[in-house]
Write a structure and sequence with these properties.
The protein has a single domain, classed as HIT-like (HIT family, subunit A). It is 30% helix and 26% strand.
């Protein structure tokens, strides 16, 4: 994998799932529990550069993400943010949104921005091992669905 954005978000250790054109990765800085990054596998810096096949495959990836996060996080809303300022390859930050908190591995994850825009600066920062553990848990749930 030569996609620097995927590598920046911990690929392959943080991989939850993949489709023909997309990688689903755990986002190490978690503004909410279950935050992911959906990364286009090829090199592209503009959304319009994606092939029709990649757009079609995006539906499969999003269906899987929403099924997974509905089951694991019980989100109330979900935000897909395409920022691409630092990591330039096409990718989305997937932020499940909820009131209250979610607890995982002894840590509380509060949606500090609820019910407005996500508070991307208020995160639970997972170290490499914790991010990989969460990715493994989510990958098992993805496969079982």
């Amino acid at each position: 994998m030569s996609n620097p954005t995927a590598l920046a978000f911990g690929y392959p250790d943080n991989k939850v799932a993949e489709t023909d054109h997309w990688l689903v990765l755990v986002r190490p800085k978690q503004p909410t529990f279950g935050s992911l990054v959906l990364v286009y596998k090829d090199r592209a810096e503009a959304f319009s550069d994606l092939s029709p096949a990649a757009f079609s495959d995006l539906k499969l990836a999003i269906d899987g993400i929403e099924r997974l996060l509905r089951q694991v996080v019980a989100y109330e809303k979900i935000n897909y943010l395409m920022l691409m300022m630092v990591d330039r390859d096409v990718h989305f930050h997937v932020i499940p949104r909820y009131s209250g908190e979610r607890v995982h591995a002894g840590r509380a994850f509060v949606d500090a921005g609820w019910p407005a825009a996500p508070a991307l600066g208020a995160t639970v920062d997972l170290d490499a091992a914790a991010a990989a553990d969460l990715a493994a848990l989510l990958a098992k749930t993805w496969s079982a669905a």
